[in-house]
Amino acid sequence: MGLFARLARLVWGGEVDRALRPVLLVQLAGSLAGGCAYPFLGIWAIKQLGASQGGLGSTYLVGAALAAVGGYLGGHLSDVHGRRPLILAGWSANAVMPLFFLVVGHNVLAGLALLCSLPVLGSIGGSADTAIVADLVPAERHEAGYAAVRVASNFGVTLGPAIGGLLLLLGGWNTLFVGVAVLAAAGTVLAWRFIPSRGDYSPDAPPERGSLGVIARDGVFLFYLCSGILASFVYVSYETVLPISLTVTHGLSAATWGFLVIVNPAIVTLFQMRLTRRTEHVPAAVKLALGLPLMGLPFLLLSVTSAIPAVVLVIAVFVVGEMLWVPTSQAVVARLAPADVRGAYMGAFGISWSVAWALGPFLGLHVHEAAGDGATWLMFAAMSLVAGAAGALAARRAWRGPAPAPPPLPSPV
After folding, report:
1. Is residue 269 packed enough to be buried (19+ CB in 10 Å), middle (13-18) or exposed (0-12)?
2. How far, in Å, are 54, 269, 276, 353 from residue 33 at the CA level?
3. pLDDT digits (tens, 9 = 90+) for 26-49
4. Are 98 and 180 in contact (CB under 8 A)?
5. CA 74 distance to own-chain centroid
6. Assuming Cys at both sites, which of 4, 198, 269, 396 could form a disulfide with 285, CB separation 3.0 to 4.6 Å?
7. What is 245-264 written as a DSSP string?
8. What are the DSSP calls for 297-345, one per residue?
9. Is 152 in contact with 27 (CB distance < 8 Å)?
10. Among candidate residues 306, 318, 312, 313, the one with its CA nearest the CA of residue 245
11. Is 3 exposed, middle or buried (0-12, 13-18, 19+ CB in 10 A)?
């Protein structure tokens, strides 16, 4: 852990909670594996597998829908059986699945089925990965904890595509998939070696009530979930609509976007923890009310100019809003969730991402084609304002009192 401490001071800007270090190690290995694979999977499906663009789009849609179910189920099971078994299961599956790509050949149906299964496998352990942060650190450190995990993830995403491209250059698709399997297996080994069975702030016993019913009756959380869906739509617009807007409407080359796109993870890697520490005394409601509009409103500048400095400014302001939003939003969910069903709440909140990835590109690109660039960014800017206002209201409610505790165990007979 001495090497990790030095790395933490360089990347995280200071010491990281000791209890979180195993989670960060596993997250870094996993994000390296994901960063190696995901930027190239669509290209593999079209060029190597021979799938149609429509078939690939439908695969992403089905995968996102299944991931929503898998995320809730994984979170629920982690409440019942503990975080560690679900984390190990998720990472083990992610280590094995890339090897199936070696034998799929040109079977389009089998290849698309594999692509469809990847988000599901990731979501099963992902909810436990998120919930365990709140098990390991006290409530006042939740936001800093989620920020630290996010830095590890973005560090891997920054390096992963370069590693994946190098593997492709050296040995082609088979070498890429073997490399991804090795990196994911490293995550499994690290999780087995370092992830604890429980944390100091884990619930004392498994839940004795159905989590789905608790969530369905929690009006504040459902309201916050709607805010999260709108916020995720704005984020997905950056990932999917902005590249098309810049290259098709504004005439930037794809190569130029390739250089611009690394600005986001680089800023998050270097400044997420520093910003989180500077704003740790700012109420969550204020950070959501400010951060989400900072994500959506800068896009309106593109209606005035698409010069490179303006695009860089749009991305930079967007990232500041994103850095305020993401760890704060996870901390709010941890605050709203009763401790005994925390994993299920995290999994349920993950539905916001699944909905956004399933419908966001469809909505954004159709509006872009039918009504133009200005109308598209006006729509997403409006979403950011509504999401910020709704998220702030829910966050204020979350901090009115202490987080709810699980019901007491029955007395022994």
Report:
1. buried
2. 26, 17, 26, 20
3. 888 888 888 888 778 877 887 888
4. yes
5. 15
6. 396
7. IIIIIS---HHHHHHHTTHH
8. GGGGGGGT---HHHHHHHHHHHHHHHHHHHHHHHHHHHHHS-GGGHHHH
9. yes
10. 306
11. exposed
